[in-house]
Amino acid sequence: MQYRRVDNWIEDQPLVLRWQSDAANPLFRLSADQGNAPIGSYDQPADQRVMQHGPTAVGLYKSSGDRTSNYLNALFPANGSIKQRRQVDGWTIADTGSMYFAFKFVKLGSWYHQTPNDPPYKVKTTTQNHPTAGLAYSYDILRSQADDNGWVLESADRSAYVDLDAFATALTGRTSLDVSHIDDMNPRLNYHSLSGDDLDITFDVASQAPGAAHRVNGTPIDYDSFKLFDTPWLRQDKLGAKFTASVDGRCVVYDFDHWTVRQRAARR
Q1: Which one of 51-60, 125-134, 243-252 scores highest in mean pLDDT?
Q2: What whole-number distance in Å separates Cα of residue 17 and Cα of residue 210?
Q3: Which band of pLDDT confidence, cut at 50, 70 and 90, is reported for residue 209?
Q4: Comparing C-alpha atoms, which of 192, 202, 171, 196 is closest to residue 62?
Q5: Residues with Cβ < 8 Å from 19, sequence gap 6 or more?
Q6: Euclidean distance between CA atoms 152 and 68, whole angstroms
Q7: pLDDT per residue over 218-238, tens digit each?
Q8: 3-class SS at 153?
Q9: Over the stretch 140-180, which tens digit does the pLDDT of each residue have?
Q10: Is 1's pLDDT higher than 50?
Q11: Which has the higher per-residue pLDDT, 95 or 32?
Q12: Any idea of the CA torsion for 212, 205, 176, 73, to the nearest 10 degrees?
Protein backbone atom coordinates (compact mmCIF):
# COMPACT_ATOMS: atom_id res chain seq x y z
CA MET A 1 0.00 0.00 0.00
CA GLN A 2 1.56 3.24 -1.12
CA TYR A 3 0.40 5.30 1.86
CA ARG A 4 2.19 2.97 4.24
CA ARG A 5 5.18 1.87 2.21
CA VAL A 6 8.75 2.28 3.42
CA ASP A 7 11.06 2.50 0.40
CA ASN A 8 14.81 2.08 0.34
CA TRP A 9 16.46 4.24 -2.31
CA ILE A 10 19.80 3.00 -3.57
CA GLU A 11 21.06 6.28 -4.94
CA ASP A 12 21.26 9.58 -3.09
CA GLN A 13 18.40 8.97 -0.61
CA PRO A 14 18.86 6.00 1.73
CA LEU A 15 15.23 5.92 2.88
CA VAL A 16 11.94 7.64 2.06
CA LEU A 17 8.35 7.24 3.21
CA ARG A 18 5.53 8.36 0.92
CA TRP A 19 1.82 8.67 1.61
CA GLN A 20 -1.37 9.70 -0.17
CA SER A 21 -2.17 13.38 0.23
CA ASP A 22 -3.79 16.24 -1.65
CA ALA A 23 -1.14 18.56 -0.25
CA ALA A 24 2.25 19.12 -1.82
CA ASN A 25 5.26 16.92 -1.07
CA PRO A 26 3.87 13.93 0.88
CA LEU A 27 7.36 12.62 1.51
CA PHE A 28 9.46 12.04 4.63
CA ARG A 29 13.12 11.33 3.95
CA LEU A 30 16.27 10.60 5.83
CA SER A 31 19.55 11.85 4.44
CA ALA A 32 23.13 12.34 5.54
CA ASP A 33 25.46 15.20 4.81
CA GLN A 34 29.18 14.87 5.21
CA GLY A 35 31.59 17.76 5.06
CA ASN A 36 30.42 19.98 2.24
CA ALA A 37 27.60 17.75 0.96
CA PRO A 38 24.33 19.75 0.82
CA ILE A 39 21.40 19.03 3.12
CA GLY A 40 18.89 16.78 1.38
CA SER A 41 21.42 14.66 -0.50
CA TYR A 42 23.15 11.53 0.68
CA ASP A 43 26.90 11.01 0.57
CA GLN A 44 28.78 7.74 1.20
CA PRO A 45 26.00 5.09 1.24
CA ALA A 46 28.59 2.61 2.54
CA ASP A 47 28.37 4.34 5.93
CA GLN A 48 24.71 3.41 6.51
CA ARG A 49 22.85 0.11 6.95
CA VAL A 50 19.07 -0.14 6.61
CA MET A 51 16.73 -3.03 7.44
CA GLN A 52 12.96 -3.16 6.92
CA HIS A 53 10.35 -5.62 8.17
CA GLY A 54 6.75 -4.83 7.25
CA PRO A 55 5.84 -1.26 8.25
CA THR A 56 9.01 -0.83 10.33
CA ALA A 57 12.53 0.19 9.31
CA VAL A 58 15.69 0.56 11.38
CA GLY A 59 19.10 1.86 10.47
CA LEU A 60 22.66 2.37 11.63
CA TYR A 61 25.24 4.95 10.63
CA LYS A 62 28.98 4.70 11.19
CA SER A 63 31.22 7.35 9.68
CA SER A 64 34.24 6.13 7.76
CA GLY A 65 35.81 9.57 7.40
CA ASP A 66 35.89 12.88 9.26
CA ARG A 67 34.04 12.30 12.54
CA THR A 68 33.23 15.92 13.31
CA SER A 69 31.08 17.27 10.46
CA ASN A 70 28.78 14.38 9.56
CA TYR A 71 25.06 14.69 10.25
CA LEU A 72 21.87 12.73 9.71
CA ASN A 73 18.87 14.80 8.66
CA ALA A 74 15.26 13.73 9.11
CA LEU A 75 13.30 15.98 6.76
CA PHE A 76 9.63 16.50 7.68
CA PRO A 77 7.72 18.40 4.94
CA ALA A 78 6.20 21.69 6.10
CA ASN A 79 3.79 22.21 3.19
CA GLY A 80 0.62 20.73 4.70
CA SER A 81 1.03 17.03 3.86
CA ILE A 82 1.58 16.39 7.60
CA LYS A 83 -1.61 17.38 9.43
CA GLN A 84 -0.19 17.17 12.94
CA ARG A 85 3.25 16.49 14.42
CA ARG A 86 4.54 16.36 17.97
CA GLN A 87 7.21 14.91 20.27
CA VAL A 88 6.43 11.96 22.54
CA ASP A 89 9.07 10.19 24.65
CA GLY A 90 11.87 10.86 22.16
CA TRP A 91 9.71 10.04 19.13
CA THR A 92 8.49 12.49 16.52
CA ILE A 93 4.99 11.29 15.66
CA ALA A 94 3.02 12.50 12.65
CA ASP A 95 -0.54 12.32 11.33
CA THR A 96 -0.58 12.58 7.54
CA GLY A 97 -4.34 12.19 7.17
CA SER A 98 -4.01 8.77 5.50
CA MET A 99 -1.53 7.12 7.87
CA TYR A 100 0.53 7.67 11.02
CA PHE A 101 4.27 7.45 11.32
CA ALA A 102 6.91 7.93 14.01
CA PHE A 103 10.65 8.53 13.85
CA LYS A 104 13.38 8.43 16.48
CA PHE A 105 17.14 9.02 16.43
CA VAL A 106 19.29 7.07 18.88
CA LYS A 107 21.24 10.23 19.71
CA LEU A 108 19.85 13.68 20.41
CA GLY A 109 19.09 16.04 17.58
CA SER A 110 18.24 19.70 17.06
CA TRP A 111 15.37 21.19 15.05
CA TYR A 112 15.76 23.64 12.15
CA HIS A 113 13.35 25.11 9.61
CA GLN A 114 14.55 25.37 6.02
CA THR A 115 12.91 26.82 2.92
CA PRO A 116 14.24 27.12 -0.64
CA ASN A 117 14.31 30.90 -0.19
CA ASP A 118 16.28 30.98 3.05
CA PRO A 119 19.71 32.60 2.98
CA PRO A 120 22.74 30.37 2.46
CA TYR A 121 24.22 28.51 5.42
CA LYS A 122 21.19 28.98 7.68
CA VAL A 123 21.38 25.41 8.99
CA LYS A 124 24.73 24.13 7.83
CA THR A 125 27.93 26.14 7.75
CA THR A 126 29.90 25.26 4.65
CA THR A 127 31.92 27.24 2.18
CA GLN A 128 31.21 25.22 -0.95
CA ASN A 129 27.55 24.19 -1.10
CA HIS A 130 24.34 26.10 -0.63
CA PRO A 131 22.41 23.97 1.89
CA THR A 132 19.03 24.71 0.28
CA ALA A 133 20.12 24.08 -3.30
CA GLY A 134 18.46 20.66 -3.47
CA LEU A 135 15.22 21.56 -1.68
CA ALA A 136 12.11 22.45 -3.65
CA TYR A 137 9.85 22.65 -0.56
CA SER A 138 10.02 23.83 3.02
CA TYR A 139 11.07 21.37 5.73
CA ASP A 140 11.39 21.05 9.46
CA ILE A 141 14.71 19.25 9.83
CA LEU A 142 15.70 17.13 12.81
CA ARG A 143 19.48 17.07 12.64
CA SER A 144 21.68 14.67 14.63
CA GLN A 145 25.42 13.97 14.76
CA ALA A 146 25.93 11.03 12.43
CA ASP A 147 28.90 9.17 13.86
CA ASP A 148 27.79 5.87 15.48
CA ASN A 149 24.12 6.74 15.37
CA GLY A 150 20.93 4.86 14.62
CA TRP A 151 17.24 5.42 14.01
CA VAL A 152 13.81 3.79 13.91
CA LEU A 153 10.88 4.50 11.59
CA GLU A 154 7.41 3.10 12.37
CA SER A 155 4.36 3.47 10.13
CA ALA A 156 0.73 2.40 10.61
CA ASP A 157 -2.55 2.44 8.74
CA ARG A 158 -4.78 5.19 10.11
CA SER A 159 -7.65 2.72 10.51
CA ALA A 160 -5.62 0.73 13.06
CA TYR A 161 -5.90 3.51 15.69
CA VAL A 162 -8.68 5.79 16.88
CA ASP A 163 -6.46 8.85 16.66
CA LEU A 164 -2.88 10.05 16.96
CA ASP A 165 -3.02 9.83 20.75
CA ALA A 166 -3.87 6.12 20.54
CA PHE A 167 -0.98 5.58 18.12
CA ALA A 168 1.37 7.40 20.52
CA THR A 169 0.15 5.36 23.49
CA ALA A 170 0.73 2.10 21.64
CA LEU A 171 4.13 3.26 20.46
CA THR A 172 5.40 4.19 23.92
CA GLY A 173 3.79 1.23 25.66
CA ARG A 174 4.59 -1.62 23.29
CA THR A 175 7.98 -0.79 21.77
CA SER A 176 11.48 -0.84 23.22
CA LEU A 177 14.90 0.06 21.89
CA ASP A 178 18.23 -1.41 23.03
CA VAL A 179 21.13 0.82 21.99
CA SER A 180 23.69 -0.42 24.53
CA HIS A 181 26.01 -1.42 21.66
CA ILE A 182 25.63 1.68 19.49
CA ASP A 183 29.21 2.82 20.22
CA ASP A 184 30.83 -0.59 19.60
CA MET A 185 33.34 -1.11 16.80
CA ASN A 186 30.41 -2.57 14.85
CA PRO A 187 27.36 -0.64 16.12
CA ARG A 188 24.27 -2.71 16.91
CA LEU A 189 20.63 -1.83 17.49
CA ASN A 190 17.81 -4.08 18.71
CA TYR A 191 14.24 -2.83 18.43
CA HIS A 192 10.99 -4.45 19.59
CA SER A 193 8.48 -3.08 17.10
CA LEU A 194 4.89 -1.94 17.25
CA SER A 195 3.98 -5.15 15.41
CA GLY A 196 5.63 -7.24 18.14
CA ASP A 197 8.72 -8.25 16.16
CA ASP A 198 12.35 -8.00 17.26
CA LEU A 199 14.53 -6.29 14.64
CA ASP A 200 18.25 -6.79 15.30
CA ILE A 201 20.76 -5.03 13.04
CA THR A 202 24.56 -4.93 13.29
CA PHE A 203 26.85 -2.77 11.16
CA ASP A 204 28.70 -5.02 8.71
CA VAL A 205 30.92 -4.82 5.62
CA ALA A 206 28.96 -3.27 2.75
CA SER A 207 30.58 -5.46 0.10
CA GLN A 208 29.39 -8.66 1.78
CA ALA A 209 25.91 -10.18 2.05
CA PRO A 210 24.13 -9.05 5.26
CA GLY A 211 23.82 -12.63 6.53
CA ALA A 212 23.46 -12.77 10.29
CA ALA A 213 23.83 -8.98 10.59
CA HIS A 214 20.09 -8.54 9.89
CA ARG A 215 17.75 -10.64 12.06
CA VAL A 216 14.01 -10.66 12.63
CA ASN A 217 12.88 -12.55 15.74
CA GLY A 218 16.33 -14.13 15.93
CA THR A 219 16.31 -15.46 12.34
CA PRO A 220 18.61 -14.00 9.65
CA ILE A 221 16.73 -12.39 6.75
CA ASP A 222 16.95 -14.54 3.61
CA TYR A 223 17.63 -11.78 1.11
CA ASP A 224 18.37 -14.36 -1.61
CA SER A 225 14.66 -15.24 -1.65
CA PHE A 226 13.59 -11.65 -2.34
CA LYS A 227 12.19 -10.71 -5.73
CA LEU A 228 13.71 -7.86 -7.72
CA PHE A 229 10.29 -6.12 -7.74
CA ASP A 230 7.41 -7.31 -5.56
CA THR A 231 4.70 -4.65 -5.33
CA PRO A 232 1.08 -4.39 -6.57
CA TRP A 233 2.42 -2.34 -9.50
CA LEU A 234 5.78 -3.87 -10.47
CA ARG A 235 6.81 -7.54 -10.33
CA GLN A 236 9.92 -9.39 -11.44
CA ASP A 237 11.91 -12.31 -10.05
CA LYS A 238 15.59 -11.83 -9.35
CA LEU A 239 17.34 -12.45 -12.70
CA GLY A 240 13.88 -13.10 -14.13
CA ALA A 241 13.20 -12.59 -17.84
CA LYS A 242 9.66 -11.26 -17.36
CA PHE A 243 8.82 -7.84 -15.94
CA THR A 244 5.18 -6.95 -15.23
CA ALA A 245 3.87 -3.41 -14.75
CA SER A 246 0.24 -2.94 -13.63
CA VAL A 247 -2.05 0.08 -13.33
CA ASP A 248 -5.82 0.69 -13.44
CA GLY A 249 -6.72 -2.97 -13.98
CA ARG A 250 -4.36 -3.46 -16.92
CA CYS A 251 -0.82 -4.77 -17.06
CA VAL A 252 2.04 -4.94 -19.51
CA VAL A 253 4.37 -7.96 -19.56
CA TYR A 254 7.89 -7.51 -20.94
CA ASP A 255 9.58 -10.79 -21.91
CA PHE A 256 13.29 -10.08 -22.28
CA ASP A 257 14.11 -13.63 -23.39
CA HIS A 258 11.92 -13.31 -26.46
CA TRP A 259 11.86 -9.50 -26.77
CA THR A 260 8.07 -9.36 -26.70
CA VAL A 261 5.59 -7.03 -25.01
CA ARG A 262 1.99 -7.99 -24.38
CA GLN A 263 -0.93 -6.46 -22.54
CA ARG A 264 -3.57 -8.22 -20.46
CA ALA A 265 -6.02 -7.59 -17.65
CA ALA A 266 -4.34 -7.44 -14.25
CA ARG A 267 -4.87 -10.46 -12.02
CA ARG A 268 -6.74 -9.87 -8.78
Answers
A1: 51-60
A2: 23
A3: low
A4: 202
A5: 2, 3, 4, 26, 81, 96, 97, 98, 99, 101
A6: 23
A7: 998 877 777 777 777 888 887
A8: strand
A9: 999 998 889 999 999 999 999 999 999 999 999 999 999 99
A10: no
A11: 95
A12: -150
Q: What is the DSSP string of 82-149?
A: -SEEEEETTEEEEE-SSEEEEEEESS-EEEEEE-TTSPTTSSS--SS--TTTT-SS-EEEEEEE-TTE
Per DSSP, helices labelled H in the chain are: 164-174
Cβ pair 28, 151 in contact under 8 A: no
Helix (H, G, I), strand (E, B) or coil at 28: strand
CA angle 2, 262, 242 (to 5 degrees): 65
Map residue 221 onto helix, strand or coil.
Answer: coil
| Total Cβ atoms within 10 A of residue 128 | 8
Alpha carbon separation from 215 to 13, 54, 58, 93, 174 (Å, rounded):
23, 13, 11, 26, 20
Residue-level pLDDT at 8: 37
Which of 149, 159, 89, 77 is closest to 113 using CA atoms? 77
Name 208's Cβ contacts closer than 8 Å, sequence gap at least 6: none
pTM of the model: 0.82
What is the side-by-side order of every strand in the sheet holding 242-247? 229-230, 234-236, 242-247, 250-255, 260-265
Residue 39: count of CB within 10 angstroms of its CB: 26
Gap between the terminal Cα atoms of the chain: 15
* Per-residue b or e along 17-33, where b marks 16 or more CB atoms closer than 10 Å to that residue's CB: bbbebeeebbbbbbbbb
Between CA 212 and CA 222 the distance in angstroms is 9
